[in-house]
């Protein structure tokens, strides 16, 4: 009895040790201990897919309907995205230097933009300006996406057009039923700079690594200009180039022009 | 002994390096272009940041300024409507004549001391000197073209690629370098050597005549609140009672504010003797007519500058003698050295 009790005790200790060992091994193997070098840098691509209230944007030939029931088509759709910021899981923010994107629905090459030299990390949030920051609106001659030759610069009241939509609508009272929505302006009360931000899903953050090139996918809804805060009737508003009506349109699209779709890590 | 040797070698090598660097200095062929803030001027707004003023950049800017091939029908250059002998305004033209003989809607302003200006055009629509030319380039009634067309032309027209390479280090021309070159030329235009400036800077050696002095006193009492020394503008926008209801909305076009309707930028008075006609629409062709407007022509428009209504009387009362004295003073603002400076000449 004494012996068996002794044996039992040994068995027990053995079992406990094995169990403990297994658990420890298990934990260490579970914990994917990926060490990110503080100097590691990586790239990612941001993609914008243009649509109108869920339907693909087809320039010129496709008819769409706004919330007011007005029919319209779109011949020009261009917009600036700038000052991109990424937030890490720990809350620290990385601002991408010189991040200016001009998306032109007529130029598929403008839908994808690659950014390099981003500190490796898991990012769970992105924010950017819809348009161009005040400083660059007032700065001297720019180049790249901000080249005034790209047709997004007002010469008579110098500054960038942030969002440009042109088309026609039978409801428009303008000559040739034109729709002309040139949204821009940086001076209060007609400041149209709007900042958009969105969280990525925590399960699939933007993983920037030296050997990866993840893709962040957004949709851009041209239809968002005409509803949201205030439905636009093309009979009463079909032309704006800055000013109070541009503010109205900017307030419409501020939160709904872009929608985060997914990340391909 | 060993230390001595090392010192010797060091000494010789420094000497050799110094000699090398000396031989590499290339002396400019022409007079050096400099931008100097005159003694009686405030700090400049445009500081050539990211656009260092160089002889080659300035020379390129000048060539572009005078090149008519940049316009749609190859007839109009910047210099067509900004003539040096008129203080770079457009003499005898109420409004500018652009391509296809199209008439613009406002009077071409003088071009000098632009480095002190924070906004441009009669309504202040342009907010950086470097972007100002785009308006004239693209306006259908001015040069009637666009930046891409000009950039393409320059890239394929000798000697421009070489000139851009000399100025900016790259023979590939883009709109940014085009505009920077133009800004080097226009920002370097400084007019600060009028008789007035000489009297202000050195009153021991220079003095006004009695009439000029009387005019200066009158000017300080009656005009200087808007035409502030030494730039002779406070750089603000105001309504000087030209019309009861201004057809041209002026500053309101930019701000959208009703209180800015019919307001225009206060123009400098420097070189005013040479830059007629006057006002945003060039309606007055003599200084006498301008002064008579202030004396007896002020319209009580809704946004009229309060300085033009004193004790319920409109305008600035001026006798014939006072007008002559004022004009005598205004003529001391003519800067012949600037007007005849070959550096800014077309050749």
Write up what this structure looks like.
The complex is a heterodimer of chains A (about 260) and B (about 350). Chain A is α+β, with helices and mostly antiparallel strands. Chain A has three helices and 16 strands. In chain A, the strands form two sheets. In chain A, strands 3, 4, 5, 6, 8, 9, 10, 11, 12, 13 and 15 form an eleven-stranded mixed β-sheet that branches. In chain A, strands 1, 2, 7, 14 and 16 form a five-stranded mixed β-sheet that branches. Chain B has two domains: about 55-190, Cytochrome Bc1 Complex, Chain D, domain 2 (Orthogonal Bundle); about 195-335, Cytochrome Bc1 Complex, Chain D, domain 2, CATH 1.10.760. Chain B has 13 helices and four strands. A two-stranded antiparallel sheet of chain B has the order 1-2. In chain B, a hairpin with a 2-residue loop joins strand 3 and strand 4 (about 315). Mean pLDDT of chain B is about 90; it is low at about 10-30. Classes of the chains: A alpha+beta (about 260), B mainly alpha (about 350). The interface of A and B includes residues 139, 143, 147, 149 and 153 of A.
Strand content of chain A: 35-45%
What sequence of helices (H) and strands (E) makes up the elements of chain A?
HEEEEEEEEHEEEEEEEHE
Structural class by SSE content of chain A: alpha+beta
Task: Provide the CATH architecture of the largest domain in chain B.
Answer: Orthogonal Bundle
Helix content range of the residues of chain A, please? 10-25%
Which regions of chain B contain 5 or more consecutive residues with pLDDT less than 50? 8-29
Distance N terminus to C terminus of chain A?
A: 63 Å
> How many strands in all of chain B?
4
Note the quaternary state here.
heterodimer
Strand tally of chain A is 16
Q: Helix tally of chain A?
A: 3
Estimate the mean pLDDT confidence of chain A: 92
The Rg value of chain B, from CA coordinates, equals 24 Å
Beta content of chain B: under 5%
Share in helix of chain B = 25-40%
**Would you tell me which CATH topology of the largest domain in chain B applies?**
Cytochrome Bc1 Complex, Chain D, domain 2
Average per-residue pLDDT of chain B, rounded, comes to: 91
Helix and strand composition category of chain B: mainly alpha
Q: Which blocks of ≥5 consecutive residues of chain A have pLDDT under 50?
A: none
């Amino acid at each position: 009895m004494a012996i068996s009790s002794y044996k039992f005790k040994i068995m027990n200790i053995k079992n406990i040790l094995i169990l403990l060992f297994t658990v420890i091994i298990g934990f260490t193997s579970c914990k994917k201990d990926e060490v990110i070098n503080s100097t590691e840098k990586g790239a990612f691509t941001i993609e914008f897919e243009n649509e109108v209230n869920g339907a693909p944007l087809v320039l010129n030939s496709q008819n769409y309907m706004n919330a007011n029931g007005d029919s319209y088509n779109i011949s020009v759709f261009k917009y600036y995205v700038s000052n991109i910021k990424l937030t890490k899981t720990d809350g620290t923010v990385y601002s991408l230097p010189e991040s200016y994107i001009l998306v032109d629905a007529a130029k598929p090459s403008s839908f994808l933009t690659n950014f390099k030299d981003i500190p490796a990390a898991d990012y769970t949030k992105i924010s950017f300006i819809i348009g161009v920051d005040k400083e660059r609106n007032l700065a001297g001659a720019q180049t790249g996406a901000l080249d005034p030759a790209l047709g997004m610069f007002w010469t008579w009241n110098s500054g960038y057009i942030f969002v440009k939509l042109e088309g026609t609508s039978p409801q428009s009272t303008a000559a040739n039923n034109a729709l002309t929505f040139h949204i821009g302006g940086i001076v209060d009360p007609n400041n149209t700079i709007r900042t958009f931000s969105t969280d990525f899903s925590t399960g699939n953050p933007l993983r920037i690594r030296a050997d990866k090139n993840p893709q962040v996918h957004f949709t851009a809804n041209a239809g968002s200009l005409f509803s949201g805060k205030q439905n636009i009737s093309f009979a009463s508003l079909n032309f704006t180039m800055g000013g109070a009506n541009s503010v109205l349109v900017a307030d419409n699209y501020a939160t709904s022009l872009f929608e985060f779709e997914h990340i391909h890590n | 002994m060993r230390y001595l040797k090392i010192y010797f070698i060091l000494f010789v090598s420094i000497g050799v390096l110094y000699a090398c660097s000396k031989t590499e200095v290339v002396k400019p062929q022409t007079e050096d272009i400099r931008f100097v803030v005159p003694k009686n001027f405030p700090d400049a707004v445009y500081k050539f940041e990211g656009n260092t003023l160089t002889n080659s950049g300035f020379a390129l800017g000048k060539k572009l300024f005078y090149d008519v091939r940049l316009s749609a029908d190859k007839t109009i250059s910047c210099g067509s409507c900004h003539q040096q002998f008129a203080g770079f305004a457009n003499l005898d033209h109420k409004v500018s004549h652009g391509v296809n003989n199209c008439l613009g809607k406002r009077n071409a302003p003088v071009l000098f001391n632009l480095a002190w200006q924070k906004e441009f055009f009669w309504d202040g629509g342009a907010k950086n000197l470097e972007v100002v030319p785009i308006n004239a380039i693209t306006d259908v009634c001015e040069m009637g073209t666009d930046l891409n067309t000009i950039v393409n032309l320059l890239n394929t027209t000798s000697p421009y690629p070489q000139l851009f390479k000399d100025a900016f280090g790259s023979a590939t021309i883009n709109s940014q370098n085009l505009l920077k070159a133009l800004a080097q030329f226009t920002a370097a235009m400084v007019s600060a050597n009028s008789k007035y400036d000489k009297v202000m800077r050195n009153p021991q050696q220079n003095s006004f005549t009695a009439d000029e002095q009387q005019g200066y006193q009158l000017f300080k009492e009656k005009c200087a609140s808007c035409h502030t020394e030494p730039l002779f503008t406070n750089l603000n926008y105001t309504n000087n009672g030209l019309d009861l209801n201004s057809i041209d909305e002026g500053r309101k076009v930019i701000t959208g504010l009703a209180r800015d309707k019919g307001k225009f930028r206060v123009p400098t008075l420097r070189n005013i003797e040479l830059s007629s006609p006057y006002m945003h629409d060039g309606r007055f062709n003599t200084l006498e007519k301008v002064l008579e407007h202030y004396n007896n022509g002020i319209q009580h428009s809704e946004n009229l500058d309060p300085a033009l209504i004193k004790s319920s009387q409109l305008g600035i009362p001026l006798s014939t003698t006072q007008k002559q004295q004022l004009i005598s003073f205004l003529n001391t603002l003519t800067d012949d050295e600037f007007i005849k400076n070959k550096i800014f000449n077309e050749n």
